[in-house]
Automatic annotation (TrEMBL):
<dbReference type="InterPro" id="IPR036412">
    <property type="entry name" value="HAD-like_sf"/>
</dbReference>
<dbReference type="Pfam" id="PF24694">
    <property type="entry name" value="LNS2_PITM1-3"/>
</dbReference>
<keyword id="KW-0732">Signal</keyword>
<dbReference type="InterPro" id="IPR001666">
    <property type="entry name" value="PI_transfer"/>
</dbReference>
<feature type="domain" description="LNS2/PITP">
    <location>
        <begin position="158"/>
        <end position="300"/>
    </location>
</feature>
<dbReference type="Pfam" id="PF24695">
    <property type="entry name" value="PITM1-3"/>
</dbReference>
<dbReference type="InterPro" id="IPR023214">
    <property type="entry name" value="HAD_sf"/>
</dbReference>
<protein>
    <recommendedName>
        <fullName>LNS2/PITP domain-containing protein</fullName>
    </recommendedName>
</protein>
<feature type="signal peptide">
    <location>
        <begin position="1"/>
        <end position="21"/>
    </location>
</feature>
<dbReference type="InterPro" id="IPR031315">
    <property type="entry name" value="LNS2/PITP"/>
</dbReference>
Length: 325
């Protein structure tokens, strides 16, 4: 009888583990094989050749996050110069993918940039996992990388704003972008992000920053020893402070919760737009943590003057994500 009960318990446990979603695969994209290089050919247009000879490439890939079973659209933006952002038009870009369960880079084909310097690559459903996307301009070999996350419904997630939330104020990013300094992080902010990652939570960076500071953001993550994805900037922000911050964040939180099915267990911000967007997106005020002058307002919770006490108390006491490794 005892043996039968033990077997039943074991089978139940096995069934529970099978039903449980896997934790985010943060390792594989960091261990990608040598980057692929397509054969270099001349630019199609003389103007493109002149452009690439005069200015530094400032390309970016929008990170993409979809639910398992959904198709994904990978978006690349190709331009030159940190100030002019002159679009690379009507030139060929090659696209590659590497990630969970793959032994080598997969070639996804090539596309021509449109009049905005963009390409759009449709990718059919992929297994749940984390993937690195690499796009290479054929004419000069300049390349840029981004990420694709394919997640199972119910994935436990922690969401962070960046400027004024992880960095000490909202203007640090632009000093960083201008090359004047490296944006300073709040004390124990990077450790807080890493702790959630190590506990198996999906990490989302949702920022009001315009798309063209993506490269600087990824460099900043590296300097703070943080993984640089999933990073969502404002795809429509042309100026330094896009006017649709609340709308941008609200819509993306709703997309993550309602379309992808993420379980956003906690969100961090600093601004009234963060408070409003998180609430509009369905995140509980009790799990909305705010730092800075608006901390604790409108029913939110205060992080404190920095993250040190929050890290040692709230984050340390947070159980691991409900996922299997």
């Amino acid at each position: 009888m005892t043996r039968r009960i033990s077997l039943a318990v074991a089978l139940a446990l096995m069934g529970s583990l099978t039903a449980q979603a896997a934790c985010p695969d943060y390792t594989t994209p960091q261990q990608a094989p040598a980057a692929p290089k397509p054969a270099k050919k001349s630019f199609r247009h003389l103007g493109s050749k002149i452009l690439s000879g005069l200015y530094q490439p400032w390309h970016m890939v929008h990170d993409t996050l979809v639910a398992q079973g959904q198709s994904a659209t990978l978006v690349g933006k190709f331009d030159y110069d940190a100030v002019l952002h002159k679009d690379l038009e009507d030139e060929r870009v090659h696209v590659y993918l590497y990630g969970t369960g793959m032994a080598a880079w997969e070639y996804l084909g090539s596309q021509m940039t449109n009049s905005d310097g963009k390409i759009f690559v449709t990718l059919g459903p992929r297994p749940a996992g984390e993937y690195k996307v690499r796009m290479v301009v054929e004419g000069d070999g300049s390349a840029v990388e981004g990420y694709l996350s394919v997640v199972e419904p119910g994935r436990d997630t922690v969401l962070f704003d960046i400027d004024g939330t992880l960095t000490i104020n909202d203007f640090e990013a632009y000093a960083d972008y201008a090359g004047l300094k490296t944006a300073a992080a709040y004390y124990y902010a990077p450790e807080t992000v890493r702790a959630y990652q190590q506990k198996g939570y999906q990490i989302i960076y949702l920022t009001a920053r315009p798309y063209w500071v993506t490269r600087d953001a990824r460099e900043w993550f590296g300097k703070q020893n943080l993984l640089g994805w999933h990073y969502r900037s404002n795809p429509y922000g042309d100026g330094p402070i896009p006017p649709n911050t609340e709308e941008h964040k609200t819509n993306y939180v709703r997309y993550l919760r309602e379309t992808v099915g993420l379980n956003i267990v906690r969100a961090y911000g600093n601004a009234t737009t963060d408070i409003a967007a998180y609430a509009n997106g369905g995140i509980a005020k009790a799990e909305t943590w705010i730092i800075g002058q608006h901390a604790g307002k409108e029913g939110t919770r205060s992080v404190g003057a920095d993250y040190s006490y929050h890290y040692s108390s709230v984050v340390a006491a947070t159980p691991p994500a409900a996922c299997r490794r």
